[in-house]
Amino acid sequence: MRPRSLPLDAYRLAGRGRAKLFTLLVRRGFAEFGAGSAVHPPFLVYGEDRIAIGRDVVVHPGCWLQVIGEQARGEGRLAIGEGCSIGRRALITVAESVVIGRKVLLAPNVVLQDHVHGYDDVTTPVIDQPIARTAPIEIGDGAWLGQNVVVGPGVRIGRGAVVGANAVVRSDVPDHSLAVGAPARVSRRF
User: Fold this and answer.
1) Does residue 60 have an active-site annotation?
2) Which candidate among 3, 6, 43, 188 keeps its CA 20 to 30 Å from the CA of 158?
3) For the segment 92-119, what is each residue's pLDDT rounded down to a tens digit?
């Protein structure tokens, strides 16, 4: 067994301390923030008063959590269940509802977006067009979404399901199944 590196140990300890301090500073702004949860900076958040984070959740650096319900003429809500791990640079943007179950693992760069921007008016830039459609997203307990997965509006990913890296999920994934590809298709059930 290799001896431990003191500089690396000190670096890790400093990172954990920074995350604890940052979490203490931001936790009050959330609708709910469970014990043992941590948010690692840098971190971007909008609509935190409509975000509920369960116990023992880890939000890794570079994540962006956004609830934009007022722009979509609704009351958007994001709920993250206990024991979840939200990978680096994940983007979760909500106009209506995104519910992430317990013990869900999101790998780096996962995108969950429950709405689609309008683009039908060719005389108006897309950025100036209203949201065209919203539909809730639900991620079941124990699911795992691989790196760079994109989940669109109205999708339910079942309990214990696995979505392979780089998949684009536009339709439901059943419990205890593997979905891969763009668009994602179920390739195996277990």
Assistant:
1) no
2) 43
3) 999 999 999 999 999 999 999 999 989 9
